Structure formats: C-alpha cells, structure tokens
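Re: that backbone. Tokens:
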C-alpha cells in the first residue's frame, strides 16, 4: 500500500496464541482453569481462515505450554505460510522473573516450537507487554544469546497495567549500556488522542475504538514512515468463550467488543491490503541492510 510521497507503508498482522485463561491480572489465579475444555484450536482455525480470505501471512506468537498441549495447532500454522514466534512458555510477566528464569523460559519455548515446525524461531513477544525500564539491560542480551532477530514487546506509553513511556515510538535497535543491540524492537503503534498517547491497533483498543478512527490512525502513522501492526488473541473473536471472574474494569478490558471484533478485523485487513509482511522476514532484511551499511561505510575501510 503506497502513501503520500511514494513512501511504502509496512504493516504486520500478529496473533498471540494463548488460551482463554492466560491473563496476568492479580485478582485471578489462572492455575484453577488449566485443563478446562478449550476453544483455542477452533478460534485459531478461524483466524487462519480470515488470513486466507484476505491473502495475508501473519506472525503468531505461540505460548510454549500451548504448543505442548496442542502440538497439532502449531503444525497447522507454519504450513499455512505464517511465522511461528515465541510468546514465552508459561505466560509469566517478564519483570516478575529473574534473568536466569527468563532465559530458561525463553529457551524452553523456542525448543518446543522449533521441534514442532522444523524452523528457527526469530522473534519474541512478552506476555502483557511486561517490560520495564530496569529489565531492558538484561532482556535484550538474553534475546541475543538465543540468536533472535527481533522483539515486539514494548508499549511506548503508560497504562495502569504496563508501559514504558520514555521508550522511542519507532522500530529501532535499542541501545543498552552504550551499545546498540542486534535485536530489532517493534513496539506497539501509538498515537496522540485527546492529549494522551494510546494504542489503537490491537487488543482492548482495537475492540473499543470505532473502525473509522483506527483507519485514521493508520493513515496518520503510515506517511510518517513508521511500521505498524495489528495484534489480537484468538479469544477476541469468540463471544462465546469462557470468562474469567474479573472485577468490572478488568472484565471490560478483557471482553468488551468481542462480538464485533472479527468484522472489524476483516475490514482492517481489506483497508490495509498489500501492506503486510511477516515480522521475521522484515527484521532479518533490516539486519542484512544494517550489516551491509556497516561493511561498506566510509569508516569501515571496505568501501569503494
């Protein structure tokens, strides 16, 4: 999809493949619900059908524990042309773990997913955007150890649940301890609305905001040369899903707008047709470009 000034808009379609009870609200012990009959496979099949109808290949951040329980589900995703990336293994908040706990959780999830797909895992998304400023100094080095190419884990604004408001609102290689990492961070797209910085392209924001406003946000972001992504969970297109016993505000965030979400998703994919790429393909292309620039830069002594 072309924008003003011949600038090309780049978008990603992403899904966090986790079950209906995978949430990080303090008021609920999700261990009570593990083993309860799941609609996840049918919900994911529906998402794959929507993608096929729109001719879009997505990036699926799959929870390792889900892959263990439903290996056939993962084996459907990759052959359909979608990227399989890691959402961790146990859906723990990253900032609740020690560096070693996070390292082991990441390694376990990647090993399971790579065994099932026969393909390298290139990306990671933190459950519930659970990064804080003081986790970044060890988070990116651990992703580098795992030979990943990208992360899509930062919400560059603030909510009562998550966010790093000082984080740059653009796709970039974060600098940690004075060194640019080799991990490309693809943060949540945000816009200014009524004096506040908010998301618009997924989850509660996508279900809450009217379609015309979401399209306007994409029009605003695209011409700036910023990459954007849509993100949803399988449960968000399923009004008949089981529900967690949550307080009013958290229940609103978790379930509002599920009855109209599929329709809004289909319209958004049609509106953004032709602009979608998989995150892993994009991140590796950016890395290759970066390596070439370094190799042939005047300072490298390799230029002609």
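Recovered sequence:
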């Amino acid at each position: 999809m072309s924008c003003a000034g011949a600038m090309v808009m780049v978008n990603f379609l992403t899904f966090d493949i986790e079950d209906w009870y995978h949430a990080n609200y303090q008021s609920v012990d999700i261990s009570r619900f593990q083993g309860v009959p799941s609609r996840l496979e049918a919900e994911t099949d529906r998402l794959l059908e929507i993608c096929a109808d729109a001719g879009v290949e997505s990036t699926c951040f799959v929870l390792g524990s889900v892959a263990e329980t439903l290996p056939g589900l993962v084996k459907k995703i990759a052959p359909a042309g979608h990227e399989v990336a890691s959402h961790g293994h146990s859906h723990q908040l990253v900032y609740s773990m020690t560096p070693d706990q996070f390292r082991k959780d990441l390694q376990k999830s990647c090993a399971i997913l790579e065994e099932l797909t026969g393909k390298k895992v290139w990306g990671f998304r933190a459950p519930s955007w659970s990064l804080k400023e003081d986790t970044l100094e060890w988070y990116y080095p651990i992703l580098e150890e795992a030979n990943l190419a990208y992360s899509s884990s930062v919400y560059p604004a603030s909510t009562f649940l998550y966010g790093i408001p000082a984080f740059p609102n653009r796709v970039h290689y974060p600098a940690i301890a004075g060194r640019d990492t080799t991990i490309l961070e693809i943060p949540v797209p945000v816009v200014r609305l009524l004096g506040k910085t908010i998301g618009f392209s997924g989850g509660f924001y996508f279900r809450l905001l009217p379609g015309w406003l979401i399209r306007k946000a994409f029009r605003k972001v695209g011409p700036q040369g910023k990459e954007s992504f849509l993100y949803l969970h399988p449960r968000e297109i399923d009004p008949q899903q089981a529900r967690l016993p949550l307080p009013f505000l958290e229940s609103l965030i978790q379930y509002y707008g599920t009855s109209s979400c599929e329709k809004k998703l289909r319209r958004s994919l049609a509106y953004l047709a032709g602009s979608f790429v998989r995150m892993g393909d994009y991140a590796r292309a950016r890395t290759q470009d970066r390596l070439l620039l370094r190799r042939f830069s005047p300072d490298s002594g390799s230029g002609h």
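The chain has one domain: 4-300. The first strand starts at residue 11 and ends at 17.
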